[in-house]
Amino acid sequence: MSKSFTLNNGIEIPSIGYGTFRSQEGQDLAANTKLAIKEGYRSIDTAFIYKNETSVGQGIREAIEEGIVTREELFITTKVWNDGLSFDETLQAYDDSLKRLGLDYVDLYLIHWPGQDDHYIEVWKALEKIYAEGRVKAIGVCNFHVRHLENLLSQTTVIPAINQIELSPKLTQVTVRKYCENHSIRVEAWSPLMNGELLDNDVLTSIAKQYNKTAAQIILRWDIQSGIVTIPKSMTPSRIAENLNIFDFELSAEHMATIDALNEDFHYGSNPEVFNFGK
């Protein structure tokens, strides 16, 4: 199984990345970001709203300065919080994120949520400008359902390279995944382990024993074999390493189907159909 996927513009994205959702700003996060890179992660995911871009950037820069990796080997993602930003404010938000990260560019810039109106169209056009100017390698969206994607594609030019959505064995998102597949949009899973809630699931632990793996490794392997980019989050060094150790086995078709069947359409996080930036 490849350790990367090709996006619709030809750019390669690592199939697994280090997620930083709910990781607090500080030296621990900077150290764990650097550790993740040292362990072999090449994709790092953050966002403006996580309020941790500074620490994530510090860890990235330290890894580069210490010769662990080059900037060109990394794939860095951040996101704009689309809560009423104008076109110009979105451009400024990108520059502000770069400043906090201490980087000249990110590889992927995403709209974090669609919200309850179509304001994301104006924000997307700003992302298109950044992309056209060569200041970012790819642009995409998060938490977009089919109706959001249809509206976006009908009014804009660039097809999103990524749709990052909540996706786990309890929320398989088959309808959104099928639409994205038909439009060459790569799906990326956030909260693939459901914040650890799935690690004691009887079905997953039973499968894990058959491969001498953990439930987390089974879930992440299921993601990748399904063609889904996955970004597990951990602040525990041993689990940071464990989550990356998923390329030495392959789930059988039967076990893939068993995991698919765990779906309950259960949103552990916010549902995009009702989420509206806390308003």
From TrEMBL:
<feature type="site" description="Lowers pKa of active site Tyr">
    <location>
        <position position="79"/>
    </location>
</feature>
<dbReference type="Pfam" id="PF00248">
    <property type="entry name" value="Aldo_ket_red"/>
</dbReference>
<comment type="similarity">
    <text>Belongs to the aldo/keto reductase family.</text>
</comment>
<keyword id="KW-0560">Oxidoreductase</keyword>
<keyword id="KW-0521">NADP</keyword>
<feature type="active site" description="Proton donor">
    <location>
        <position position="50"/>
    </location>
</feature>
<dbReference type="InterPro" id="IPR023210">
    <property type="entry name" value="NADP_OxRdtase_dom"/>
</dbReference>
<dbReference type="GO" id="GO:0016616">
    <property type="term" value="F:oxidoreductase activity, acting on the CH-OH group of donors, NAD or NADP as acceptor"/>
</dbReference>
<feature type="domain" description="NADP-dependent oxidoreductase">
    <location>
        <begin position="16"/>
        <end position="264"/>
    </location>
</feature>
<protein>
    <submittedName>
        <fullName>Aldo/keto reductase</fullName>
    </submittedName>
</protein>
<dbReference type="InterPro" id="IPR036812">
    <property type="entry name" value="NAD(P)_OxRdtase_dom_sf"/>
</dbReference>
<feature type="binding site">
    <location>
        <position position="112"/>
    </location>
    <ligand>
        <name>substrate</name>
    </ligand>
</feature>
<dbReference type="InterPro" id="IPR020471">
    <property type="entry name" value="AKR"/>
</dbReference>
<dbReference type="InterPro" id="IPR018170">
    <property type="entry name" value="Aldo/ket_reductase_CS"/>
</dbReference>
